[in-house]
Amino acid sequence: MFDFRLVTGIDSSAMHSFTQIKQVAEEVGARLVLVNLSHELRNAFDARGFIADDVVVASDLDRALEACEQAIIAAHMGKGAEAQTLRDWFTRALGSADHADQLAAVCERLDVDKDVIIAAQGEPANSMHFILEGRVGIIVNMDDGRSIRVRSLGPHTTIGEMGLITSQLRSATIQAEVPSVLYALSANAYERIKRENEPLAQALLTYVISIMAERLSFSSRVIGVLRR
Question: In the listed set 77, 95, 122, which residue is the last one of a domain according to the structure?
Answer without folding.
Answer: 77
